[in-house]
Amino acid sequence: PSGRGVSMALSPLVTLCSLGLSLPSRPSSTYQRGGSPAASILWTPSSRGEPGQSPRDLEFGPLGQIPKYCESLSVVSRRPTRTVRAGKVLIGSEHPLVRQTMATTLTSDVDASVDQIMRCADEGFDLVRLTVVGMKDAKACLDIRAKLDAKGYDIPLCADMHFAPKVAMVVADAVEKIRINPGNFVDGRKKFDEMIYETDEQFFAEREFFVDSFMPLVEKCKKLDRAMRIGTNHGSLSARILSFYGDTPRGMVESAVEFADICRSADYHNFVFSMKASNPLVMVQAYRLLAAEQYRLGWDYPLHLGVTEAGEGEDGRMKSAIGIGALLADGLGDTIRVSLTEDPEYEFAPCNRLAEIGDAMHTAEASGRQKAVPEFKDTRDITSFARRSGRLPVQKEGDELDYRGLLNRDGSVLLSVTVEQLEAPQALYKALGCKTVVGLPFKDIATIDAYLLREVPSESAAEARQTIKRMQDVAIHPIVPAAVLQATPLPGAIPLMTLAEAAAAPHQSRLVISLNGKESAEEIAKLNDIEHDFVLLEVDPSLSRLHASRRLFGILEDKNIDSAIIHHYHPEPSDSAELALQMGTQIGGLLCDGLGDGVLVEPMEAGAFEMDVLRTASFGLLQGSRMRNTKTEFVSCPSCGRTLFDLQEVTAQIAERTGHLPGVAIAIMGCIVNGPGEMADADFGYVGGAPGKVDLYVGKEVVRRGIPNEEACDALIELIKENGMWKDKEEEPAEEETPVAVQ
Predict the structure, then answer these.
(1) Where is the signal peptide (predicted)?
(2) Before 37, cis peptide (omega within 30)?
């Protein structure tokens, strides 16, 4: 019992590494040599400078307007990498995606750690990471390895190292892999003080002190054939990197490249990279930029994928799917970890499912759909993020109803509704996220923006028609196929037509156009000539959604078409967890590129989901894609042996008391490792500072220290109130009817 079976066949690359032989690399003359004690390091030239004129650009060529960051933009093809070996597990493009997790026990508690690692192996994980804080943990790892071996568990272990180079040297004797964080392996200052570097040379001079600390570990890992992960974290970039590159994906990449240069100079190549962030957009951009740099430099090191501090429940799964799914669809990634604020055993199901979704992108059937998309020009800029904002509907002269709320500027949620649901108005209003006052619906923070109605109630269906009218009165409008409206008119409804139908029809005051991804560029150009409110993109099942959507957005840019695009998604029957993973991968992978203005979810089968589940998942998708905030954003770490309080219990407590604050972001960190760094992406921070004590942050600044655990949640709420971001929670109305299922 040692986790999933992973191929033991050694590639030629692994054989060379295990023999200590160097792999082909560029001549040393293409690198810059530093001064003592870094004189032996072959440093990659600086990326700073005018575009096309930086030392790296001049030496290796510029990245280009659309740099190569994956094998293909038209089909999913896994990026070729060398093979890295961690014990029996092989990581790289020639091998299955490796599933891994991290133990939450105190590493010094050997028996508890062994028991948890065995449970993780039994679930199917290939590798487990352990926290190593000091020498006590390092020595415990020797006992953990020995006890696991005695029980027949040969699952490889990875030591998670921060701040302690000397401890890393000891633990290398016990584990098969070591994760080092370039942001704090040597430079562990958890500050945001700006450091001034007037020249590249001043910045490079500070490399000397971490070369001395890191090189002994590199040499030991090479000697013992240990693997390493150079794992940059957006939340723990060093003060040095922050001052030179800023809190940016470029800074994340350059932080890792420096440490990789040290490894390569020692002819040590048994390492992987990671670029983790709690923000999926930052995470995706950083990994793509790293992949582009590897292509430019001629490197082929594998990638470990993960969204750090993703959180718990469907929200954590959604954020992980958005980030990991987007990269798997690019053919990037060789090992994955889904970081949830849950026990590590529960990470396996979403981790394994994302790996299966990634594998499914490479099947013959999927490849056929990808190749069926007509050739197109991909216009995305993977080095920066800019959201394409579609034109919003406006009020027109003669309108009897208010259509300004048809779409939301921050992202729209649409659902499908049936006549049967219209006949149970109170349950429907609640399922759609409406507030009700004396039985009448009103829009709330998380109310849908519009709905698809494929069948119009007859004129004799008074209850259903009254429900429609009451929602229209608060700007929640039905979108109805034009042929249905022609047969059964419905005042104020917005007709839905295909592009061909719209081009042939007389002028419509209100109109939604449906595209399927098969239209030619010339046909799509007709959108400029047809007055319409927005476009539903319902990709034909014979095409790859990802590639057909990218093609459409490229044509829209080329033709200067500013139509708002709503992704029309048909989920297969499943549960809420699978729905989050599929929506995050299929739609989130586009939204994280800024491509799309919202989502319409219409299940394939009637009754497959409760409507509230679809609505909640849709708003979770938009919030995870950094579009529309409808609830408090929690950045919570997944817990480990460093955690100084019960993270799951505290997260649940804070979420219960503060989860009703849309637009507020709260970071909940078990320890200092990523604490202050993640404050950059949060309004408030709750960070374990010492056993039994919590430090509170506003932004990146600690404002209260040493608060007892039992008082910390109350103190956090007071802090939110002091900063004018608190509002009292509204009481939930009494249950009136049973949940509404999508028919």
Answers:
(1) 1-24
(2) yes
Please state, in angstroms and rounded to a whole number, the distance separating the CA atoms of residues 520 and 352. Answer: 38
Q: Is 161 strand, coil or helix?
A: strand
| Count: domains in the chain | 3
Q: Is residue 3 part of a domain?
A: no
Q: Which of 216, 215, 260, 213 is nearest to 84 (CA)?
A: 260
Angle, CA of 85, 89 and 92, to the nearest 5°: 60
> Do the Cβ atoms of 414 and 600 come closer than 8 Å?
yes
Range of the domain at 254: 69-369
The Cα 235–Cα 275 span in angstroms is: 11
Is 593 found in the same domain as 557? yes
Mean pLDDT of 534-542: 98
- Angstrom distance (rounded) from CA 226 to CA 149: 17
pLDDT band for 61, please (50, 70, 90 cuts): very high
Query: Which of 566, 595, 625 lies at the terminal end of a domain, its last residue?
Result: 625
Say whether both 223 and 354 belong to one domain.
yes
599 DSSP 8-state letter: E
The count of other CB atoms within 10 Å of the CB of residue 584 is: 33
Cα→Cα distances 703→284, 685, 710, 714, 722, Å: 32, 10, 18, 15, 12
Residues 591 and 697 in one domain: no
What is the CB neighbour count within 10 angstroms for residue 237?
27
Does 668 lie in the same domain as 536? no
Looking at the predicted structure, is the pLDDT value of residue 523 above 60? yes
Q: Assign residue 342 the CATH number of its domain.
A: 3.20.20.20
How many angstroms separate the Cα of 329 from the Cα of each of 75, 134, 586? 9, 39, 9
Residue 29 lies in a domain: no
Secondary structure of 459-492 in HEC code, one letter for each residue: CCCHHHHHHHHHHHCCCCEEEEEHHHHHHCCCCC
DSSP β-ladder status, 450-453 and 440-442: unpaired
Instruction: Tell if the pTM clears 0.85, that is, is over it.
Output: yes
Judgement on whether residues 264 and 124 belong to the same structural domain of the protein: yes
Give the whole-angstrom CA distance, residue 632 versus residue 637: 16
Least confident of 66-75, 146-155, 627-636: 627-636
At 191-242, the pLDDT tens digits run 545 577 878 888 888 888 889 889 999 999 999 999 999 999 988 888 888 8
